[in-house]
């Protein structure tokens, strides 16, 4: 549905000389459209900020996971040394737990981001549907055309 500027919606027809310039229903619809537009823009900004912060957190967690893998690889190479076997096992188990925890955090961040995007999309669609229903049900009255008699 293409949107028209507010000026086009409220502009009176040129052929009607006595048409009122401001219609109360049109002002109400314009206000409703403005409110909906502002709330949609606000939701879009919030989703964008959430997406950016989630991506930053994900990158940070992935970098931490990479460093943990490097530490785990270094510990795996030192496996041959008899004196470090016991500490290596404890460290490996700890690192594996940290990696599992980080994977879980990354997965929860991704699912949270998807849920937020879905929720904001549903909210904006519901607002547009309400507005569309109100606009469709409210039909503006057409001004009566009065013909003036010419004096000869």
Which properties best describe this structure?
152 residues, mainly alpha, 3 helices, disordered N terminus
Describe the structure in brief.
This protein has three helices and no strands.
Number of domains: 1
Sequence stretches where pLDDT stays below 50 over 5 or more residues: 1-22
Strand content: under 5%
Helix content: over 70%
Molecular shape: rod-shaped
Roughly what is the average pLDDT, rounded to an integer? 77
The span between the termini is: 50 Å
Number of strands: 0
Which structural class do the helices and strands define? mainly alpha
Helix and strand run: HHH
Largest sheet: none
| Cα Rg | 32 Å
Outline the structure in words.
The chain has 152 residues and is mainly α. It has one domain (23-135). The protein has three helices and no strands. The longest helix is centred in the first third of the chain and has 54 residues, at 24-77. The radius of gyration is 32 Å and the shape is rod-shaped. The two termini are 50 Å apart. Residues 1-22 have low confidence and may be disordered.
Topology:
Layout: H1 6-10, H2 24-77, H3 85-137
Helix pairs in contact: 2-3
